[in-house]
Design goal:
It contains 35 helices and no strands. The chain is mostly helical and 608 residues long.
Length: 608
């Protein structure tokens, strides 16, 4: 064959310069056709001269072209002359014509003669027939000759049989020789291995790193799911720009999940319009998550009909979130009956948040008996909110022990309010150490009440602070005051009063007044009373009276007594007597006793 090669036959003859670029593609196709025609002529001449290799090559050319009759003639002739490549191709031809058994016979001949491709084809044939031992034998023959398809097929067979070690060995061999599906599947195996170990495990970290490299190789070879998984890894690591590139590559190749993920990346970057384009593309390809995202986008814009259409599309795609979101949409519109129907549909499909939402809906309607099983189902499925709600439900029945178990379960999963409830229960039981642990969790999660109670717990433990006069230099703040301030900054009125008291104890009048005023304006009668005391000490009694009136009207006995004393000094005896009467009815025993003495004195003065 080499004797007949020439520049025209190899396609390496010179091209004229200055050819217009618009004609390049057409010229290349024409040149390829001309080259193939020239090659065919050369091969036919060689065949006429009895060249066996030419017969085999010409048969393969005609087979690729689809001219089976002419190909079979040449391939049989070459096979009869002992050409193993022709025997393999003859098997391929016969297999395509539906003569599988005869094809296997020719593959066997070629495989015995050393054809790795034929051994691979024969192994595939036996696997299709269910003869796995024979399939393994021939695939092994192919793989050991470095046939990449043979290695991949052998790995697939061993994985099916549960031989993970053998499967990984041959999958790795195929991947190393450039098989992109093998690279992807090897990456998946390593990914699962890394996921099944502790995150701090060195072996897990190594497996994760290697998985990423194989995903990268698969993606670089055009594997769209490999690109998707690589993008996911990069996104989790915060490398959003590169993640977006791989998502884009995968999405352009038709991977709907990548298009959906790309949409979320764009949405998070503030490009909602571009995100909607990719979500639309993914949703049209059947991605329920993308359909839900489109529904949420239109719901935010107030386009409820369009949102409902996309939620239904998500549901039709098998995404239970579609039914749940339809329930939320109906609930927001006050369509309670329809909301319950959609919640039930999602809940019956195992959607835990839908189960919790359905239970809340039933509970609000007064159906506690119907709500409890759905709370339980959601909680058992892992819904933290449902576990907390069960705690509230049992606490309302005075079933404190059962309630505490559910609170503990929710708290263990990070539920802030549940941790607060457990902390308060531990305080009632006298277990301050455990109470502090749970209160710290709740306070750290943002609970103002937990921060206040934690501060109170720490406050009770610290030694008494030395006395200070107002206006003296301030001291450093203790930990309990820091927690009081955190609660106060979140609007906790008792914490605001306590922060004011601590500031006053440090001599910081301005800070004390600020917190007292903030608490008083939010409705705290203690805040109003203390602000009045501070103002009175600073010589602003008229303003102090205003705040004491507010505190007394809210039921503060000591504020009423202060007002009675002010009125007595001013000579407003009847008004003073009225405030003293109120102080007697509102105050503690000590305040009531003092108010009664003042009232009697004012009464005698009036009757004198």
């Amino acid at each position: 064959m080499g004797d007949m090669a020439n520049l025209f036959g190899t396609g390496r003859f010179a091209q004229p310069s200055g050819q217009p670029s618009g004609q390049e593609e057409a010229t290349d196709e024409a040149q390829e056709a001309a080259d193939e025609a020239a090659e065919e002529v050369r091969l036919r001449l060689a065949v006429d001269g009895g060249d066996v290799e030419a017969m085999s090559v010409l048969g393969a050319m005609l087979l690729r072209r689809g001219d089976f009759d002419a190909a079979e003639c040449h391939l049989r002739a070459a096979t009869a002359a002992g050409d193993r490549a022709a025997a393999n191709n003859l098997g391929v031809l016969l297999h395509q014509r539906g003569y599988a058994d005869e094809a296997a016979g020719w593959w066997r001949i070629a495989a015995v003669a050393g054809s790795a491709a034929a051994a691979h084809a024969l192994g595939r044939h036996f696997r299709e027939r269910g003869d796995e031992p024979a399939a393994e034998y021939w695939l092994c023959q192919s793989a050991e000759q470095d046939h990449v398809l043979g290695a991949y097929a052998l790995a697939d067979l061993l994985e099916h049989r549960g031989d993970d070690t053998g499967s990984e060995r041959w999958m790795r061999a195929a991947a190393e020789r450039g098989h992109r599906e093998a690279a992807y599947r090897l990456a998946r195996t390593l990914d699962r291995r890394a996921g099944g170990r502790d995150g701090g495990d060195k072996a897990a970290a190594l497996a994760a790193d290697e998985a990423e490299q194989w995903y990268r190789q698969a993606a670089a070879r055009g594997h769209r799911r490999g690109a998707l998984h690589l993008g996911t890894i990069l996104e989790k690591r915060g490398e959003l720009k590169e993640a977006g590139r791989w998502y884009l590559t995968s999405a352009k190749d038709g991977e709907a999940r990548a298009a959906c993920a790309l949409g979320f990346l764009l949405r998070d970057a503030g490009d909602t319009e571009s995100a909607a384009v990719w979500w639309l593309r993914a949703a049209q390809d059947g991605d329920g998550n993308a359909a839900n995202a489109l529904g949420a986008l239109h719901a935010e814009r107030g386009e409820t009909q369009t949102a409902e259409r996309w939620y239904r599309a998500a549901m039709d795609a098998g995404d239970d979130n579609g039914a749940y979101n339809l329930g939320l949409l109906c609930a927001e519109q006050g369509r309670t009956t329809q909301a319950e129907q959609w919640y039930r549909r999602a809940a019956y499909a195992g959607h835990r948040e839908a189960s919790n939402a359905l239970a809340i809906l039933l509970l609000r309607a007064g159906d506690e008996t119907g709500a409890e099983p759905w709370f339980s189902k959601a909680a058992e499925a892992g819904s933290v909110d449902a576990a907390f709600n069960l705690g509230i439900l049992h606490a309302g029945r005075s079933e404190e022990r059962v309630a505490l178990r559910w609170y503990e379960r929710a708290a263990a999963a990070g539920h802030t309010e549940a941790a607060l409830q457990v902390g308060m229960a531990r305080l009632r039981d006298g277990d301050e150490r455990e109470a502090e642990r749970f209160l710290r969790c709740a306070a750290g999660g943002g609970s103002a009440e937990a921060a206040y109670r934690l501060a109170s717990l720490l406050d009770a433990r610290r030694p008494p602070a030395p006395a200070h006069e107002l206006g003296e230099p301030t001291q450093d703040k203790s930990e309990c005051e820091e927690w009081y301030e955190r609660a106060a900054s979140q609007g906790h009125r008792r914490a605001q009063v306590r922060v004011g008291m601590l500031a006053a104890a440090r001599g910081d009048v301005v800070e004390a007044a600020r917190w007292y005023r903030e608490a008083a304006e939010a409705g705290s009668r203690n805040g109003a009373f203390n602000l009045g005391l501070l103002l009175a000490r600073e010589g602003s009694e008229p303003e102090a009276v205003v705040w004491w009136r507010r505190a007394a009207d809210a039921g503060h006995g000591r504020a009423a007594l202060r007002l009675a004393l002010v009125c007595a000094r001013r000579g407003e005896l009847a008004e003073g007597q009225r405030w003293a009467d109120l102080a007697v009815s509102l105050g503690s025993a000590e305040v009531g006793e003092r108010a009664a003495r003042l009232r009697d004195a004012l009464r005698q003065e009036l009757s004198a």
